[in-house]
Prior knowledge:
The chain is an alpha/beta fold. Helices cover 18% and strands 24% of the residues. It has one domain (4-197): Class I glutamine amidotransferase (GATase) domain (Rossmann fold, 3-Layer(aba) Sandwich).
Amino acid sequence: MASILALTCGHPDGLAQLAALPEVGRDVELIDDYQLDDLGLEAYSALLVSMHVDQRLMASRRDRLDRFVEQGGTLVANGHVAHVFLAGLGPFQPIENYRRADLVVNREAPHPVWAGVSTEQLTFRRGVAGCYGRGWHRPPEGAAIYHSLGPERWPLDFTYRLGRGRVLFHGGNDLWQGMSGNDSTRRIAPQLLRWILAPKLAS
Length: 203
């Protein structure tokens, strides 16, 4: 059985590419988010939550998701949180009247998921800024922040502990969507899977 459960949410393309990765992709099982209740999460070590999930549905299952992480699971979530579906997450905070400089991605600390990935290439896609992130979420106390936005350093990517488990949150488009690029952002998806499957160290 695959050890990573990924919610496709009607948008399976990026996740299908993730599941097709050699060596690590075989560990990914794809399901629609509305099938979540049909499966026992205890059979998996990690859950991938797309930005496209039905957040109302997920919020109604928050106790179950909290318990999955607290008991040692890894949860990777993406997007703009409108309905809080996990302990430690807060609602999306838009950057009011943002300028191009406010969308520049800053690296706050290294992390295996983004090893070798250029912040310039995170910031700009075909010369357009904001594709990687254009708002922020308040991290919980004790979170480790890896990327922020603009001169105000609004938090964008962070990890935190919840019970015996861990959460990686990216406040923008799904991390695996960069797989089709021809630059360093292609590294994110396979490195994400390797990080999930590696022994759980500090973060």
